[in-house]
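**Sequence with structure:**
===
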Amino acid sequence: MDVKSIQFQTNPVALFWREHQIGSLLYRLIIYGLLIGLSLLFLFPFFWMILSALKPEYQIYMWPPKWIPDPIQWSNFKDVFTHPYLPFATFVKNTMILEVGMITGRLLSCTLVAYGFARLNAPGKDILFGIVLATLMIPNAVLLIPRFILYSELGWINTFKPLIVPAWFGEAYAIFLMRQFFRTIPKELEESAVVDGANTLQIIFRIIVPLSLPVLTVIAILSFKDIWNDFMGPLLYLNEQSKLTVSVGLAYLNGQFDTQMNLLMAASVTLMMPTLILFFIAQRAFVQGITMTGLKG
């Protein structure tokens, strides 16, 4: 062993640096190991659902479990949409009608209200904004009976009106997100538009809305998810099978006396895909809208 090697091994700085490197490596291994383990644990139910959707029904209940379907039964997905008693194609169509009506109404109404809170001056504006936010603390279960009585008196039961019409009158969380994002847009842009003769609506739809696509995307994705997964609303207000939505139709696959688990899993996988596809397509705008909201420019 030469002199340089002995000096390196006895040098306190070198020993500290080597121990620090080993400790840092162990720390990273532990952190990444935990992250990978938790990710696999989180993804396992999703993985098992996909496998079950491809199995014959008897293989789902086998023990020890049969991991690879044999044979792979792609017909499960076809059987879901050709079910003799549950027209899932109609359920998807009804859900898309609600998606279009509710998302359009929510974006339009919340944009107008949020712009008023963000830019316009009016006495008591902050108090009104506080009242709007306070509605988020009201449990939805408290409002179920009063809403049902109101819509029943209006003759809206068994129609899409109880689900679509309220979306055209704003939603507190969307108003809050939009208001915070609008406050990050420089006022000089609006002042320039006023000098050029633009009115308030022209400022909103020609300046504010194009610059606010990230937060609008966030609200659209969250609204799509909530409407697609909404179970209680359609169950309360819709009575005829021809007007049900996918979430209620999926619940009907879980029969009272018998459940075809392979069809239930196939339907779950199929009906989950639109939300996942939408998120992956718009995830950049989604993340940008979340991170930029509330940053005062």
Notes: The domain at 79-292 is CATH 1.10.3720.10 (MetI-like fold). The chain has a mean pLDDT of 82. Residues 81 and 87 are 7 Å apart (CA to CA).
